[in-house]
Every structure is written in structure tokens, then in C-alpha cells.
Design brief:
Blueprint lengths: L1 H32 L26 H4 L10 H4 L3 H13 L1 H22 L4 E13 L4 E16 L4 H40 L7 H14 L29 H5 L1 H22 L4 E15 L6 E15 L7 H67 L5 H35 L9
Helix pairs in contact: 4-6, 5-6, 6-7, 6-9, 6-11, 9-10, 10-11
Length: 438
């Protein structure tokens, strides 16, 4: 009797798998054939950049260079070892950068969540029941094991568009992190140079301490003193700063790339909104078995029962009170906002570069002229000393000359600091500073 029951259950399991195999084949074929995606495919908007950066017409040789100063990594631009160490510390410990990194981790996890909906969802179930019936004095013990599978057919690309949007959001967060790095490097360099320029001005000790506090925060530390690097006069300045081709700025600046990825995500969300108008088709299946023993017929008998089922569900919106059309209008409006923001980001980037180029050029001229002034005053003080030693003038003339020279030297120190800061801002405006040191 037991062999007969076992053979019957084996036959049931075999029949069950023969019925489930075609069902799984339908799932796979449907997944492979679901190639239609509603909504627009992304194409980069046409943006016509200017042929040249403003205020370079007097130096066409620099303008014609395809290479840009921003192509240099930050450790080649800022060659002061102490400054490099500060930047490395900031890149390791700065909290803004740590937050940006965690946003990338969250966005990457969101991509996994969105992508998971493209695959069949399978779960296992187990149920055990048993007991005794007092009237008939029967005992039962049953264990039921089943597996359920559900698969949503993405005929109209709703799930694939959602995954596309999630991937674009991930790329946007990665570009946002590069923007944080670029800003962090330039802020550390700017404040460290300012601190160096004013290091010998007693009246600015308060400002120096506040700058040190700001640098400490950038480094992820509590406010404390900051070690000094090279004196400002020893900081190298490049003989020329080629900005590169204007068209390359769109690819180099991470904030522009971030704005474009936001646009890509908004474009994909239009497809998600449009797919809501179409039917949503789901396939389901379940299989398993129930195993146990019962004493319903005077003795314990083994029982083994196969369980299987399959089905399909189609859901078509009929009336939503305008919710679907409103959702589509929202998606289109958000796409238009992202497009406007993208173009605005590009426009502001070229404005930043133009301002930085003009600033660096003019501050360079100020520093050169101030150096000439200091040299003239040094010569005047030298001649005053000679006249004083020769008895042809009083020492008051020497003191007046030295006072004027000291004031001019302080102005020159400030001019050097301002010129160096403008160089850092130009490097940042061109999109340099986000490269990772190997």
C-alpha cells in the first residue's frame, strides 16, 4: 500500500513540473520580447557654446590651445607639500564629502531596487499544522511547502524607464560628489593662501585665527592652528593659463554633467508617466506539496498531495479623475524645468570662467604694477639713506620713505594673495580639482 501511494505521488510531482515548465517558458519569452518603451528617448539638447572665452582676444595663441589648465590634477597645480597634505586630509575627513559619498551609496541601492522589478519575484512558504479530533479520535500532522512566483510583463517600458531614471540619478550623485571635491580643494587652497599672505600683519591676527578655524572645519577637525606652507612669494605661478576649448567645458565641469543627468532622469520619468495609461499585465504561479500523516481510518496513513496553480492578471485604468494626465503634465513640466536648469548651468559656467579670466588677468596686472612701485620706493629709500649719510637731508625723510615702502610691501603681499586666489578660482571655474590622486 505504501509503495502504491509513493508511486502515485511521484507521478503527481512529475505532472506538476510538466505543467510548470511551459509556464516558466512563457515568463522567459515574455521577458525577452518586452522591447517596447513608451516615452521619448534621451538626446542631448543642442547647446551652441561661444567660440571663445571673453577677454582672450588679445592673446589668440593661448585661446587656440585645446589643452586646458583645468586638465592638470590638483597636486600638480598646488605644489606646496604642506598645502597638498591639507587637501589630502580634507578629502579623507570632510563631512560634506562623506555625505556626498553616502548619497551615491543610497542612489546605487535605489538602482538595484528599481531593476529588481524587471525580474520574477519568487518566495517560499512553509506551513505546519496538526492536532487531534476528540469526536473521532483522529490525529493529523501535515507540512505544506510551496513556492510562489510573480512576474510583471513590462510591455510598455514603465519599469525599464524607472530603472533608467534611477541610473541617471546615480550618475547625478556621482557628479555632485565631484563638485564637492572641486569646491573643497579650491576652498582649502584659497583660505590657506590668504592665511599665508596675511601671516605677518599683526592687525589681522583675528582674521588669521578665523581662517584657521574655517580650514580646520574643511579638514573635518575641530578649530585649531593650521601649519604653514611655503611663503606666498615662493608659491609658483604658471606663465600662462590656457582655458582650453569652450566646448570642452561642458564635459569637464561636474555641475554641468550633474544637471544633464537630472535631465536624463526627468526624460525617463515622462516614459513612466505615459506607461501608466496602458494595461499592466502580471503572471503568477505557485507550486509545492503537502506532506503528513493521518489516523482517520483506524491507523496512521501517510499522505502526500501536490499543489500547483497559475494565473494572469490584466489591470487597465478606466477612470482616474484626471490623475494620470496630471501626472504626465507634472513629468513634462519637471523635464522642462530640468532642461532650463541644464542650459542655465552651462550659461553660468561660461560666466564663471569669463569672470575668473578677467579677474586673474587684472589682478596679475595689479601685482606687477605694485612690484614696480615697491622697487621704486626701495630705490628712493636707498637714495634717502645716502643723502642722510652725506648730510644733505634729515632722517625724517628716511623714515617717511621707509613708512611708504612698508605700506607698499603690505599692499604687494595682499596683491600676491589676491592674484593667487584668482588663479585658484579660475582653476575651479574651468572644472579642475575633482581628479582623484592615484
Amino acid at each position: 500500500m505504501r509503495h502504491h501511494v509513493t508511486g502515485a505521488m511521484e507521478k503527481r510531482r512529475s505532472d506538476l513540473w510538466r505543467k510548470l515548465v511551459p509556464f516558466m517558458a512563457v515568463l522567459l519569452i515574455s521577458a525577452l520580447n518586452a522591447g517596447c518603451k513608451v516615452g521619448p528617448n534621451y538626446h542631448r539638447p543642442a547647446v551652441q557654446p561661444p567660440t571663445a572665452f571673453r577677454d582672450l582676444s588679445e592673446n589668440p595663441q593661448v585661446q587656440a590651445q585645446a589643452a586646458s589648465y583645468a586638465d592638470l590634477p590638483w597636486w600638480q597645480v598646488f605644489q606646496d607639500p604642506q598645502l597638498q597634505e591639507l587637501v589630502r586630509t580634507a578629502l579623507k575627513q570632510n563631512y560634506d564629502l562623506q555625505l556626498a559619498t553616502e548619497r551615491i551609496n543610497a542612489a546605487r541601492a535605489q538602482v538595484a531596487i528599481s531593476r529588481s522589478r524587471l525580474f520574477p519575484q519568487v518566495q517560499g512558504n512553509a506551513d505546519f499544522s496538526g492536532g487531534k479530533e476528540h469526536n473521532f479520535q483522529t490525529k493529523t500532522n501535515f507540512l505544506t511547502l510551496t513556492a510562489d512566483a510573480a512576474f510583471q510583463l513590462d510591455f510598455f517600458g514603465r519599469l525599464r524607464r524607472a530603472t533608467e531614471a534611477s541610473r541617471a540619478d546615480l550618475l547625478a550623485t556621482e557628479d555632485a560628489r565631484q563638485t564637492v571635491i572641486l569646491t573643497l580643494v579650491s576652498d582649502v587652497a584659497t583660505q590657506q593662501v590668504l592665511d599665508t599672505a596675511n601671516a605677518q600683519i599683526p592687525d589681522l591676527e583675528r582674521q588669521i585665527a578665523q581662517e584657521e578655524n574655517a580650514i580646520s572645519i574643511l579638514l573635518g577637525n575641530y578649530p585649531q592652528a593650521v601649519p604653514r606652507g611655503r611663503p606666498l612669494v615662493e608659491q609658483p605661478l604658471p606663465p600662462e593659463v590656457p582655458p582650453g576649448m569652450p566646448s570642452s567645458l561642458i564635459e569637464r565641469r561636474p555641475d554641468i554633467r550633474e544637471a544633464e543627468q537630472v535631465l536624463v532622469a526627468a526624460n525617463a520619468e515622462i516614459g513612466v508617466a505615459k506607461a501608466q495609461f496602458f494595461p499592466q499585465i502580471s503572471l503568477t504561479g505557485s507550486g509545492g506539496g503537502s506532506f503528513g500523516r493521518s489516523s482517520a481510518f483506524s491507523s496512521l496513513m501517510s499522505s502526500q498531495v501536490g499543489i500547483w496553480s497559475y494565473g494572469a492578471q490584466v489591470s487597465q485604468p478606466v477612470f482616474t479623475g484626471g490623475a494620470l494626465r496630471g501626472n504626465l503634465r507634472v513629468a513634462k513640466s519637471q523635464h522642462q524645468q530640468a532642461l532650463i536648469s541644464y542650459r542655465q548651468t552651462i550659461q553660468r559656467a561660461f560666466g564663471d570662467v569669463s569672470d575668473a579670466l578677467i579677474g586673474y588677468e587684472k589682478f596679475h596686472q595689479v601685482r606687477v604694477r605694485q612690484e614696480d612701485t615697491v622697487k621704486d620706493l626701495q630705490e628712493s629709500v636707498r637714495l634717502s639713506n645716502l643723502r642722510y649719510k652725506g648730510g644733505t637731508t634729515t632722517y625724517l625723510e628716511v623714515l617717511d620713505g621707509q613708512r611708504s615702502l612698508f605700506s607698499a610691501e603690505l599692499t604687494l603681499a595682499g596683491a600676491r594673495g589676491t592674484e593667487y586666489q584668482s588663479l585658484v578660482q579660475l582653476y575651479r571655474a574651468l572644472g579642475g580639482g575633482w581628479q582623484q590622486q592615484p
